[in-house]
């Protein structure tokens, strides 16, 4: 594989599965946040223990996401028949309940006033909800898998461990079995962007069973071929269930146009996006050489990819995916422009023990003239990969989550700082979307990523999460900043503008006044009728 810069590579730790404030990882995180970059006197990810969520050792109440088994046709028909019978019984029950609240004309004079129509409807609705609740509980959750690296699992707290108890970290067990090549400052289990997404679905009333298969600096090629030296079966994670939805996140510089000194490989990106998408949808066993898919010969493949002719000619045998799902929705997670590839004042090094990022004072190479230029390159690369995956009729890519474009929109709309290295970056009053290393996201960037993914995948407006959104509060993001980032994601995805909170308040007041006026009119009419009868 093409080399990846040391400070952009993130791996895991040999620490125990815990997140208590006294763990070795806690001390490490505190040191890391205390030693921020020399050009910025702040920690964009916030102090880990100050805003870290509750300990993530609790078991998932929804279970471990074991794959479902197909039922025999007769059994399935029987269950459907029973379900239909139960629905009919509850419908009859609801009708009888509603009728019981309907006043009947009698010759005797009642001493109690009849229930209003609204009261009858409210009572019937409440009982209907109670009656149908068991049926709703039987609906299966939407199974979604996030495939990626530290851009998905979050790199640092408070994002890295966020909501880990409520998602399935599929590499946690692999790491526990063999932590070789991992970073001690990134302990499992991880929550990350997937954990934030899960919280959004809960608040939106959606039932999502969220899993994540991530490894530091992993490319999609690395996931599919299991190129990691630790023996983690990442492809096995992809094939472990019949997923309803899968999100693919590529290594950050892999999709970029090839340049001297840049570890990019757009041919690998497009090729392995297509192979993974086909394997998810069709599940066929594969036997191929990369030269057959790229260039047509060992020499041409080597020239295009930068790999050796031996690598291009190696036979790759991939077992069939027994859990393939032709109806699965596959999405691409478009990543963001990296300041450390644009205008970094120097290179950096990452401490192997603490994860602290320190400038070296050595000049850094620039590969793009601006963040906008790099974003445009990423946008085109993701569009190309999606087009290739959809050209063979295998099902293709459902959509691209434009996270990188949302980052640029946050800058253009005056929400995020345009230059993390500027002397005014710490005092300009704008949000910093990047961590100290200039490649990973800060908690604000991860929150914006999750918002954009949420809107893309669910079709719901991220702005609907609103002022009291829980994940933002847990991450230490103010309500004001959460609303700003929600609006950025909403605008990027093309949702219609939502009235400001003040407009909602005025609308609510108006509705309340109309209701009060109507009630007074009805009350006056009733009193008049009683007076006439007397």
User: Based on the structure, what is the oligomeric state of the protein chains?
Assistant: single chain
Radius of gyration, CA atoms, in whole angstroms = 28 Å
Q: Taking strands numbered 1, 2, ... along the chain, how are they ordered across the largest sheet?
A: 2-3-1-4-7-10
SSE topology string = HHHHEHEHHEHHEHEHHHEEEEHEHHHHH
Total of helices: 19
**What's the helical proportion of residues?**
40-55%
How many β-strand stretches?
Answer: 10
Low-pLDDT segments, ≥5 res? 1-38, 40-75, 100-112, 500-504, 517-534
Core attributes:
534 residues; alpha/beta; Rossmann fold; six-stranded parallel β-sheet; two-stranded antiparallel ribbon; 10 strands; disordered N terminus
Structure, explained:
The protein contains 19 helices and ten strands. It has 534 residues and is α/β, with parallel strands linked by helices. The strands form three sheets. The protein has a six-stranded parallel beta sheet with strand order 2-3-1-4-7-10, sandwiched between helices. The protein has a two-stranded antiparallel ribbon with strand order 5-6. Strands 8-9 form a two-stranded antiparallel ribbon. Strand 8 and strand 9 form a beta hairpin. Helix 10 packs across helix 14.
Fold blueprint:
Layout: H1 24-34, H2 48-51, H3 73-100, H4 117-137, E1 142-148, H5 150-153, E2 168-169, H6 172-177, H7 192-203, E3 208-214, H8 220-225, H9 234-238, E4 245-248, H10 266-281, E5 286-289, H11 290-293, H12 298-305, H13 309-313, E6 315-318, E7 329-333, E8 348-350, E9 357-359, H14 371-390, E10 399-401, H15 403-412, H16 443-458, H17 470-475, H18 479-493, H19 501-533
Parallel strand pairs: 1-3, 1-4, 2-3, 4-7, 7-10
Antiparallel strand pairs: 5-6, 8-9
Helix pairs in contact: 3-4, 7-16, 10-14, 15-16, 15-18, 16-18
């Amino acid at each position: 594989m093409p080399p990846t810069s040391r400070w952009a590579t993130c791996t895991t730790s040999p620490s125990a599965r815990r997140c208590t404030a006294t763990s070795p990882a806690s001390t490490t995180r505190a040191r890391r946040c205390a030693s921020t970059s020399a050009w910025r006197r702040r920690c964009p990810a916030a102090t880990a223990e100050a805003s870290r969520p509750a300990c993530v050792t609790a078991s998932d109440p929804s279970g471990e996401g074991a794959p479902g088994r197909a039922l025999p046709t007769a059994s399935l028909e029987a269950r459907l028949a029973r379900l239909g019978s139960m629905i009919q019984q509850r419908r009859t029950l609801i009708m009888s309940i509603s009728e019981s609240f309907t006043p009947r004309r009698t010759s005797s004079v009642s001493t109690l006033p009849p229930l209003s129509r609204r009261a009858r409807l409210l009572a019937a609705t409440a009982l209907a909800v109670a009656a149908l609740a068991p049926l709703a509980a039987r609906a299966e959750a939407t199974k979604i898998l996030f495939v990626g690296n530290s851009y998905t699992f979050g790199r640092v707290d408070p994002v890295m461990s966020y909501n880990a108890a409520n998602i399935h970290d599929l590499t946690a067990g692999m790491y526990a079995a063999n932590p070789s090549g991992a970073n001690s400052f990134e302990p499992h289990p991880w929550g990350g962007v997937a954990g934030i997404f899960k919280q959004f679905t809960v608040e939106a009333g959606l039932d999502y069973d969220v899993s994540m298969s991530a490894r530091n600096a992993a490319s999609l090629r690395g996931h599919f071929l299991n190129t990691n030296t630790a023996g983690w079966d990442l492809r096995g994670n992809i094939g472990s269930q019949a997923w309803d939805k899968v999100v693919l996140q590529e290594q950050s510089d892999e999709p970029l146009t090839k340049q001297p000194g840049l570890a990019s490989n757009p041919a690998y990106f497009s090729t392995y996006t297509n192979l993974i998408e086909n394997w998810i949808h069709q599940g066929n066993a594969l036997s191929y050489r990369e030269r057959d898919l790229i260039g047509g010969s060992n020499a041409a493949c080597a020239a295009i990819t930068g790999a050796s002719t031996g690598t291009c000619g190696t036979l790759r045998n991939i077992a069939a995916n027994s859990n393939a799902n032709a109806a699965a929705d596959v999405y691409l997670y478009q990543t963001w422009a990296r300041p450390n590839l644009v205008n970094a004042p120097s290179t950096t090094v990452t401490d192997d023990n603490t994860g602290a990022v320190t400038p070296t004072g050595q000049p850094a190479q620039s590969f793009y003239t601006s963040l906008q230029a790099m974003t445009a390159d990423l946008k085109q690369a993701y569009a190309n990969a999606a087009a290739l995956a959809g050209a063979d009729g295998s099902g293709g890519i459902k959509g691209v989550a434009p996270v990188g474009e949302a980052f640029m929109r946050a800058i253009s709309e005056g929400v995020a700082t345009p230059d993390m290295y500027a002397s005014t970056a710490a005092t300009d009053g704008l949000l910093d979307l990047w961590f100290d290393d200039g490649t990973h996201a800060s908690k604000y960037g991860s929150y914006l990523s999750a918002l954009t993914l949420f809107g893309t995948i669910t079709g719901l407006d991220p702005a609907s999460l609103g002022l009291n959104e829980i994940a933002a509060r847990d991450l230490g993001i103010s309500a004001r900043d959460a609303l700003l980032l929600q609006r950025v994601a909403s605008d990027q995805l093309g949702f219609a503008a939502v009235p400001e909170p003040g407009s909602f308040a005025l609308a609510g007041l108006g509705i309340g006044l109309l209701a009060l006026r109507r009630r007074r009119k009805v009350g006056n009419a009733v009193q008049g009728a009683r007076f006439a009868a007397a």
